[in-house]
């Protein structure tokens, strides 16, 4: 038996990934693609990563973020990068499913609420989203309406989703094309406060799945202790990915419609005492020497550079399912390969619909993306929630 040369094996890896995707992830039935699960990632147009540089063989689904909602015309507009995104990522993986994500965390909720509050503006928004998706070759649309705070916004979202799904069904029926997929990115819990709750029944009835943003629970701005912003479990009773998933299931959204979201970034804290450097250690807010001055965010690629340059100590906490590193008074909480693998195993073992990362431009040499993709194919090891 001959043994392949290492260089030859490296060249074969992208093709092997394509075979895995084709065999495991997508089946086709009459009229519409039947999706088995989601190994997904968001690509952010301003990330500095060119769409042509994406290793799309590591994903079954890729989301282009973001298309914009014009508040004056209520039409969806798209950048040239998003307009050509499907064609670009299909060069390396013809099977990857692409979705156009509309909105984003920087958009004020009132912009979406104004559109969704009137029948005519909803129709304009819906029709323009379908036209754009079809013209650019997308397989689906993703709503990223964030920062909802009022019951009236939730009611308007419910109406929008009902009409959007009906329009997608009608368009597919009239054209004979596969229906466009409809998804949404949602908060970690459907209950935002005692009065404000996501329309879970409408979501379950009209969306193909939801991407649960199980991150940003905490940030170092004004914080007095270090924390994990994306812990899968929290023994202190704070927000966590697992408690959020349970809340969505209890709220009426089947686990088979839930996709676990995790971050490819962390938060940098400034320790009060470098000798007290674990979780919940005394902190004095943001360490701006590493993290963004606004909230303290730092991309995984920069975290890896910090670890290498400062020879920082790296810790994996299996109780919370999180990583952190520290050097001197700098402390960063984030997800490394151990946390990512455990989260993917949790999603698989709990029969969720998959996982999705925000955002892939923050990865380092595709380490986290590759770990997630490989972990989905491995035996699950995390108990059912």
From TrEMBL:
Alphabetized UniProt keyword annotations: Glycoprotein, Glycosidase, Hydrolase, Signal
Task: Name the protein family.
Answer: Belongs to the glycosyl hydrolase 18 family. Chitinase class V subfamily.
Query: Is tRNA processing set as a keyword in this record?
Result: no
The protein's name in its UniProt record = GH18 domain-containing protein
Q: Which GO terms describe its cellular component?
A: extracellular region
Record the organism: Carnegiea gigantea
Domain GH18 per the UniProt entry, residue ranges: 37-379
What SMART domains does this protein map onto?
A: Glyco_18
């Amino acid at each position: 038996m001959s043994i392949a040369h290492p260089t030859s094996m490296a060249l074969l890896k992208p093709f092997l990934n394509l075979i895995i995707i084709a065999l495991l992830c997508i089946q086709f039935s009459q009229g519409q693609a039947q999706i088995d699960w989601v190994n997904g990632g968001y690509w952010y147009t301003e990330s500095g990563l060119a769409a042509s540089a994406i290793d799309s063989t590591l994903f079954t689904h890729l989301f282009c973020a973001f298309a914009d909602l014009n508040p004056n015309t209520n039409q969806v507009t798209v950048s040239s990068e998003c307009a050509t995104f499907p064609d670009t990522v299909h060069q390396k993986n013809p099977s990857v499913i692409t979705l156009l994500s509309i909105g984003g965390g920087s958009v004020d909720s009132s912009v979406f609420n104004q559109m969704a509050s009137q029948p005519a503006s909803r129709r304009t928004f819906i029709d323009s989203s379908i036209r754009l998706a079809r013209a650019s070759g997308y397989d689906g649309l993703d709503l990223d309406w964030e920062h909802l705070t009022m019951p009236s916004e939730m009611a308007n979202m419910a109406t929008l989703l009902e009409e959007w799904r009906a329009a997608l069904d009608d368009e597919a029926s009239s054209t004979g094309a596969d229906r466009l997929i409809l998804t949404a990115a949602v908060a970690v819990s459907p209950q935002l406060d005692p009065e404000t709750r996501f329309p879970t029944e409408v979501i379950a009835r009209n969306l193909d799945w939801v991407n649960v943003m199980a991150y940003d629970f905490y940030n170092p701005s004004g914080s007095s202790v270090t924390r994990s912003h994306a812990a899968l479990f929290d023994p202190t009773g704070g927000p966590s990915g697992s408690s959020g998933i349970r809340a969505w299931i209890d709220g009426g959204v089947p686990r088979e419609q839930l996709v676990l979201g995790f971050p490819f970034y962390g938060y940098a804290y400034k320790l009060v005492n470098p000798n007290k450097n674990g979780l919940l250690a005394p902190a004095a807010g943001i360490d701006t020497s590493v993290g963004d001055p606004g909230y303290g965010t730092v991309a995984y690629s920069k975290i890896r550079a910090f670890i290498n340059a400062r020879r920082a100590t790296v810790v994996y906490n299996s109780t919370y399912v999180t990583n952190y590193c520290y050097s001197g008074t700098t402390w960063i909480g984030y997800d490394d390969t151990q946390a990512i693998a455990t989260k993917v195993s949790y999603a698989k073992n709990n029969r969720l619909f998959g996982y999705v990362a925000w955002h892939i431009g923050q990865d380092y040499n595709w380490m986290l993306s590759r770990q997630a993709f490989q972990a989905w194919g491995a035996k699950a090891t995390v108990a059912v929630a």
